[in-house]
Amino acid sequence: MPHILFISDLHLSAGHSRVIAAYERFIKCITKETKALYILGDLFEFWAGDDDLHDPFHTQVISALNNIAQKGTRIYLMRGNRDLLMGAALAEAAGATLLDDPTLLDLYGTPTLISHGDTLCIDDIEYQNFRVLAHDAKFQRDFLAQPLAARKTYIEQLRMQSNTAKQNKDSATMDVNDSAVAALLRTHNYPRLIHGHTHRPNHHLHIVDGHTCDRWVLSDWDQKASALHCDAQGCRPINF
Fold first, then answer.
1. Does 3-239 carry CATH code 1.10.760.10?
2. For the whole model, what pTM was predicted?
């Protein structure tokens, strides 16, 4: 049956052999019935800029996407917090289309809003303050003007600081805020919502202004290699 797949938070890197193996299994499961693949952020553990396209590991990952695109599956990429600097060159190499966050789809007749999901975690004030800086156009231009090696070193330092900070945060603080979810659903006329980022895969129902809205949270592949499979009958998670 024709279907569409959604994934996020793979955090691919050369050192994550188990996740790489799951990614390779996943790619092999994509058939002519897979009409589109949506990657909702954090495909890579980090992305320092499109001038890192020729790294052998990156070439391996991106070529696999391009191969399935050449066979007819449409590929859509949304930037996450780890790979915010994905650009047009990467998208072209992958045979993919870059999407804004959020993007509203007509998914087999059901309005469906897709997002990376980090904008919904408004209780994590420290992260949201950093997010404003990271999305600033001047900050990105200045950062990309630095040598690639320097960028990678800076990102690695940020990752270490982030991991330390998470140990001192309550888990609820790093999850979505229900009011933020309701506001987003209200703004887009009460669609279904699919997102990642929180690493809390689940299916939620939200009642907003009398409307019942599905919210699907995608898994992070460090814990479970999973995709959301959607067709004319609805959505369900499948594991790899």
1. no
2. 0.96
